[in-house]
Design a protein that fits this description.
Helices cover 20% and strands 30% of the residues. It has 3 helices and 8 strands. The longest helix has 14 residues. The radius of gyration is 17 Å and the shape is elongated. The protein starts with 6 loop residues before the first strand and ends in an 11-residue tail after the last strand. The relative contact order is 0.19.
Length: 142
């Protein structure tokens, strides 16, 4: 089954004493791509929220996906996508070498999930929306 994995990230407000108050919304995002959805979603979260990457960089960053069996083979997939307008998205050689040293069999694929995201800067209120360039950089269907 597939799901877009809609995800909302809230940052607690310092002045809130209400246990049921979610805080301020700082990120709303999800992905498409069947079994690649959870890993795409997690990697955007890690890059943007935990590592502090700007939203665009978090979305365009190369991804890794391992679902144990892919088309009957034990393989770890990684991004290798030449964008229509822009750079090639590909995992670094250093990361590929690190995975190989751990006995991962690697296979390049043009798409390891496609993410859409909207962030709200907690200090300025600036809203940023990013549509993954792996599907042309616009909301699908438009």
């Amino acid at each position: 089954l597939s799901s877009i994995s809609p995800t909302f990230v809230f940052r607690p407000q310092k002045d809130s004493t209400d246990d049921h108050h979610l805080g301020r919304l700082v990120l709303s995002f999800g992905a498409s791509g069947g079994p690649k959805i959870p890993t795409a979603t997690l990697q955007v979260f890690v890059h943007h929220i935990l590592e502090g990457m700007p939203l665009w960089e978090s979305i365009i960053a190369p991804r890794v996906h391992d679902q144990l069996l892919f088309k009957g083979h034990s393989v770890t997939l990684f991004d290798h996508a030449q964008l229509i307008q822009g750079p090639t998205i590909e995992l670094s050689n250093r990361t590929k070498d690190a995975l190989r040293s751990r006995n991962h069999q690697l296979a390049p694929v043009p798409n390891t999930g496609t993410s859409q995201a909207v962030s709200v800067d907690p200090e300025t209120g600036l809203i940023t929306a990013v549509s993954d360039p792996r599907k042309g950089g616009k909301a699908f269907g438009y």
